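Cast an eye over my tokenised protein here and flag anything odd:

===
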Amino acid sequence: MNAVILAVLVMVALSLARVSVVFALVVGALVGGLVGGLSLDETLSAFNDGVGGGAQVALAYATLGAFAVAISRSGLPDMLANRLITMLGKEATAAHQARVKVFLLVAVLLVAISSQNAIPVHIAFIPVLIPPLLVVMNRLQLDRRAVACALTFGLTAPYMLLPVGFGAIFLNDILLANLNSAGESLGLEITRGMVPMAMAIPVGGMAIGLLVALFFSYRGQREYTSKDLVATNAHQGHTPAKPHTFGLVMSGVAIVAALGLQLYTGSMIVGGLVGIGLLSLGGIFKWREADDLFTSGMRMMALIGFIMISAAGFAEVMKATGAIDSLVAGAFELFGDNRGLAALVMLLVGLFITLGIGSSFSTIPIIAAIFVPLAVQFGFSPMATVVLVGTAAALGDAGSPASDSTLGPTSGLNVDGQHDHMWDSVVPTFLHYNVPLIAFGWLAAMSL
């Protein structure tokens, strides 16, 4: 069996068996490296080389966690949650609760979409916004799997379609650049305007998957145990501060400054540190409490950081084996000149690669150099080639245990320990987004 397929299968199987995702990634990398012809020392060396690439992400997550804890101490999230609870009313009718459910889901979806473009902070908003809203969701008996699907759609679909924010990086800087680089000697030329137009059909499939998740799969009620979320998870025993005008104003200033600096510097770390500093100036906490603040924040985000570090090591081992090239070459030996089967295999190969790496941004450079010549050989149009490479890379971002598109929602929805990463975030998003992406990506490739 191909080393990449075996490594991904081992990783996913262990994760589904409720083994730690970090452990699953390490074991999968070891299995893939050894089967791929690397010695144990070479496998460990490649893994260690890759781990360094995830360290910056882990530090950024820890800083954001500390910023989220500091914001929660201001009383701003508590005030927001209380306002939303008041909307329910003590004797709320079923119709009123249904309206509040819709309001919550739409609000979460819009915030997630804007986090990719209008205010491109990616998942930084989740640990700030979602935990206080769990009180409302519990009272509504809102299935958190629906919220996870809404968040993941907002984190993935915009960068696949809209060439602003993270979409500018994915569509223009990575996808367009790699397509033209790989197709330069083949006479293939892709223009900037073709890329979002080609990706519109696959994203439409994702939109259908979102509607199915919200209105059919997870529309029913689901009971959760009410817990003191803030005291248990964020404050670590501290009593939430009573909101006061100056503290609330400084909280708003800190949020705006943190987001603005992220846009200006491109660093979540700098933005988070400045936000924490402004909250200290606002009297939300004292500098001598900074160690406790960072400890609480790192505790909240540590799992995600370690998973991202391990995923970077896993990806490096897969590249070192050379098994990705042989996976693609072996797959194409199976279907001869059948264009429909060729398109399907391209998409499935992309799914396997991105599931293991956890990043569609990292997948494109791996597959573009191989897929573009094959697409030209099989007579696919330039638009169809964009669809094949772009969709193959995006497949698996939603639904990967190691993707921040699933780790982010879990970090907010599981602060009370009632939202399982694999079964409540990974599996629902995999089914509702990857299946329609394959179907609509294949249809677009065959029709464009």
The longest helix spans residues 40-73. The chain has 19 helices and no strands. Residues 230-240 have pLDDT under 50 and may be disordered. The two ends are 34 Å apart (CA to CA).
